[in-house]
Amino acid sequence: MAHVDVHAGIDLSGGVLIDGLPGQGLVGKIAADHLVESLDLAHVGTCHCDGLPEVATYRTETTTVRAPVRIHADESGDVIVLQSDVPVSPSTAEDFAACLTQFLDDEDILPLYVSGKGVENGDSVDDIDSVEDVDDRQVIGVATGDASGFLTDLDVDDPADSGAITGPTGALLYAAIRQSVDAVGIIVETTPQFPDPEAARQFLDRAIVPITGIGLETESLIEQAEEIGEARERLAREMSQGGDESSSVQPIGFQ
């Protein structure tokens, strides 16, 4: 039976869940991994929901295998992170969203979802002079139910144009509407083709930290953004040189 299994005997009721599903710019994934590592959050639960890949994942320096989508939390159960090692397919996101949303409703947990908004034609994101220039990154807040009150004091914009949130995040927000669950959605301007630690930093600084009230260091994400920016520049130079080698793209890793 599809369910979320909390196996650590911790009370999560009243907490805030941060979305860590991989998406454009890996904004949620980077933010979730940073939270788990920086706050030393414990693995307290596992998602056994329909729509998730049935795979086992493992990490360096350990022989233990884990389910790909897990719940991590602090000792108080106030900060909850949905950490995922795999993307959720849009074709199966509806089943996963219904399962997770039922769990959030039962436990009275406020979900804080994030979606990267890709910018085309090099506008805005690629025009930023410095990764520290956060004002040029647009961050938009939306909500379901009564959760709009959480957006009041955040450094986020109201939507200036109409739009649709698709993929797993869209399915999660739609499930929140359908099941009358309060939820916050944060849309962050990001580079769609590359991991974007700066976008993740803004999600953390402008949404997660104010809503949860936690103390969190995010400056280390700037170094990741600089490294990825340098790798993007190298790739652009290689592509501009032409020849057969221009079609070969190497993965860009980050810690």
Automatic annotation (TrEMBL):
InterPro entries per UniProt: Proteasome_assmbl_chaperone_2, PSMG2_sf
User: What Pfam families does its record include?
Assistant: PAC2 (PF09754)
Biased composition of type Polar residues is found at 243-255
SUPFAM superfamilies per the UniProt record, alphabetical: Cgl1923-like
Q: Where is this region: Disordered?
A: 235-255
Could you identify this protein by its name?
3-isopropylmalate dehydratase
